[in-house]
Design goal:
By secondary structure, this protein is of the alpha/beta class. The chain has a seven-stranded mixed sheet, with helices on both faces. The chain has a four-stranded antiparallel sheet with strand order 2-3-1-4. 33% of the residues are buried. The structure holds S-adenosylmethionine.
C-alpha cells in the first residue's frame, strides 16, 4: 500500500499536512526505519504532487480496524454488501463482546453473534451497548448471548482490571492513550489522577514508572474495584497508588500540587481551572469538542493559564471520534 518516506524530524509536520488534505490513511500504522518514517497515504498521486517520495510498503491496519475487518470477512457470505455497510465497530472487554446492532441489521443479530464467536471463541457474553448515563457515566447494556453478567477481567498494557460494566465506566479504546501517558510520565513524579474510575490510567502508568499517584473517584463501586485492581496488580507495579473516595471538586482543592495532573473528564463537566491549579509541570485534560471549536478550546485554556499566572504551551490531540464532527480530545498543557 502507498506511503510517503519522510525524514524523522519532518514527520509530524508532513503528517499534519496530509491530514489537512484528507489523504493521510489513519487506519494504518506508520512505520519507523532508521532516520525515516513511512506515513500511510490514501492518494499517492496527490502525495507525489506535493513533492513527497511515494513508496509501496506493507503497513498493518490498526488493531481496532483489523478487528472490524475480521467481522466483515467472516460475514462475507451471510450478509449482503448493503447489510455489511451497516456493521459497526465492536469492543472486547475480557470475555465480553460489546457490539452495536443498528435497526438495519436487527434481523441479522444471530449471524453477527455467530461471527463474533467465530473470531473470538473465548467469549462468554455478547452485549449490545446503549448510551452513557448520569454523573458516573455508566453505560446501559442488554445481554444478547451467553452468561447473564457484565463482570470480567480485562487485560491491557501489561496489567489486569476487574470491571463490572453494570456499575462502572470503562473504555477499552483508551488503551493507546494510557500507554502514551505512561511513556510521557517520568520516574519520580507526583501524579494526580482526577475522575479515576477503576484505575486504568493509574495502573498503566504505575506499571511502567516509579511514581506516586493520587487518584480521586466518587463512585463507590469504582473505588471497590479500584482497590481490588491495585491488589491484583501489586507485583507488577513500579509506582504506588493512593485512591481517595470523594468528589473531585471537594477533595482536590485540599491536596498539594502535583508534577502532572490527568483529568479524564466526564462529559459535560468543567474541571479545567481546578486541574490547572494543581499542575506544576504538565496537565493532560480530556474534553469533547466540535472540530470548529478546537481553536477556541485552546484559547480558553490559554486564558485560564494567564489568569492563574502560568505561562503554558498547549497541544490538542484528537483521541477518538465521539459523534460526527465532535471529537474526544486531550489537551497536553506544559507549564513553562
Ligand atoms: C469518563 S469516566 C473516566 C473513568 C476512568 N478514568 C477511565 O478512564 O476509565 C469519569 C469518572 O469520573 C467519576 N466521577 C464523576 N463525577 C465525579 C466527581 N465529581 N468526583 C469524582 N469522580 C467523579 C465517574 O464515576 C467516572 O468513573
Amino acid at each position: 500500500m502507498p506511503a510517503v518516506k519522510i525524514p524523522r524530524e519532518k514527520a509530524e509536520k508532513v503528517k499534519k499536512t496530509l491530514k489537512k488534505l484528507k489523504i493521510y490513511d489513519g487506519r494504518r500504522r506508520p512505520k519507523r526505519a532508521e532516520d525515516f518514517i513511512f506515513l500511510p497515504v490514501l492518494d499517492p498521486n496527490k502525495a507525489q504532487r506535493l513533492g513527497l517520495e511515494v513508496v509501496y510498503i506493507d503497513l498493518p491496519l490498526r488493531p481496532e480496524r483489523q478487528i472490524y475487518k475480521n467481522l466483515e470477512s467472516v460475514l462475507m457470505e451471510k450478509l449482503s454488501p448493503e447489510e455489511r455497510k451497516h456493521l459497526r465497530r465492536y469492543d472486547i472487554i475480557g470475555d465480553i463482546a460489546i457490539t452495536q446492532i443498528p435497526p438495519e441489521l436487527e434481523h441479522r443479530k444471530k449471524e453477527i453473534i455467530e461471527g463474533l464467536l467465530t473470531i473470538h471463541p473465548f467469549l462468554k457474553v455478547v452485549a449490545v451497548k446503549g448510551s452513557h448515563k448520569g454523573a458516573f457515566r455508566i453505560r446501559e447494556y442488554s445481554i444478547v448471548w451467553g452468561e447473564k453478567r457484565l463482570e470480567t477481567i480485562h487485560r491491557e498494557n501489561g496489567v489486569e482490571f476487574k470491571v463490572d460494566l453494570s456499575r462502572v465506566f470503562f473504555n477499552p479504546r483508551m488503551k493507546g492513550e494510557r500507554y502514551r501517558l505512561a511513556q510521557l510520565t517520568e520516574d519520580g513524579e507526583r501524579v494526580l489522577l482526577m475522575f479515576a474510575g477503576i484505575l486504568p490510567y493509574a495502573l498503566v502508568i504505575a506499571r511502567y514508572k516509579n511514581v506516586e499517584i493520587t487518584a480521586v473517584e466518587l463512585n463507590k463501586n469504582a473505588i471497590k474495584l479500584g482497590m481490588e485492581n491495585i491488589e491484583m496488580n501489586r507485583r507488577r507495579l513500579k509506582g504506588r497508588i493512593e485512591l481517595i473516595e470523594g468528589d473531585v471538586f471537594k477533595v482536590v482543592p485540599g491536596l498539594q500540587n502535583f508534577d502532572r495532573v490527568i483529568s479524564p473528564t466526564p462529559k459535560g463537566v468543567d474541571a479545567l481551572s481546578l486541574a490547572l491549579s494543581k499542575a506544576e509541570k504538565w496537565l493532560h485534560y480530556y474534553d469533547f469538542i466540535h472540530e470548529n471549536e478546537l481553536g477556541r478550546f485552546k484559547e480558553r485554556i490559554l486564558e485560564k493559564c494567564r489568569k492563574q499566572g502560568k505561562d503554558c504551551e498547549i497541544r490538542v490531540k484528537k483521541v477518538s471520534d465521539y459523534k460526527p464532527h465532535v471529537f474526544k480530545v486531550c489537551a497536553d498543557v506544559r507549564m513553562l
